[in-house]
């Protein structure tokens, strides 16, 4: 299999507030220069402060990332798509040049914010995403 020199990879979840933002942050940290990682949601709900905190614990700053709607993403420019929730997987539009679309079913940590300490759920999602992103990077590089 021929490895690509660079690509544009898109991570998609419903609100583009937690999971896809963390995946974008890990992709930026793990993939070489020249590769572009983006994230978007079926809606744009803003980057969740606890997702920012969870990633900061890993030494990755996602505080400058922006929550975006899928409507803002140029579909013809995307090489790979990763969905991170069932809703996004079911409603993800077609990306005509995408060489692959894969699905990572990861629990949405935003639902834990009503609990006294939601950080363990954010950390669990972060660790799952980190592991999957590392495996994806190994396959792509």
Please, could you describe this protein's structure?
The chain is α/β, with parallel strands linked by helices and 141 residues long. Helix content is 34%, strand content 14%. It has helices at 19-30, 49-56, 86-91, 119-140, and strands at residues 8-13, 36-41, 80-83, 100-103. It has a four-stranded parallel beta sheet. The longest helix is centred in the last third of the chain and has 22 residues, at 119-140. The chain is globular and about 45 Å long. The model has no long low-confidence stretch (mean pLDDT 92).
Characteristics:
4-stranded parallel beta sheet; alpha/beta; 4 strands; single chain; about 140 residues
Please tally the β strands and state the result. Answer: 4
Strand order of the largest sheet: 2-1-3-4
What general form does the structure show? globular
What can be said about the biggest beta sheet?
4 strands, parallel
Query: Helical segment tally?
Result: 4
- From the helix content, strand content and strand pairing, which structural class follows? alpha/beta
| Assembly state (oligomeric) | single chain
On the 0 to 100 scale, the average pLDDT is 92
- Helix content, binned percent: 25-40%
In terms of DSSP E residues, the strand content is 5-15%
Computed CA radius of gyration, to the nearest angstrom? 14 Å
Taken in chain order, the helices and strands follow as: EHEHEHEH
- The N- to C-terminal Cα distance equals 11 Å
List low-pLDDT spans. none
């Amino acid at each position: 299999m021929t490895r690509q020199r660079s690509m544009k990879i898109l991570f998609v979840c419903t609100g583009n507030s937690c999971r896809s933002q963390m995946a974008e942050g890990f992709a930026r940290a793990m993939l070489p220069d020249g590769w572009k990682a983006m994230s978007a949601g079926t809606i744009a709900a803003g980057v969740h402060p606890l997702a920012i905190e969870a990633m900061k614990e890993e030494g990755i700053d996602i505080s400058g990332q922006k929550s975006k709607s899928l409507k803002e993403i140029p579909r013809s420019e995307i090489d790979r798509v990763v969905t991170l929730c069932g809703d996004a997987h079911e409603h993800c539009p077609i990306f005509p040049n995408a060489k692959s679309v894969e699905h990572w079913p990861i629990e949405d940590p935003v639902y834990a914010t009503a609990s006294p300490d939601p950080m363990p759920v954010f950390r669990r999602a972060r660790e799952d995403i980190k592991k999957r992103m590392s495996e994806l990077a190994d396959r792509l590089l």
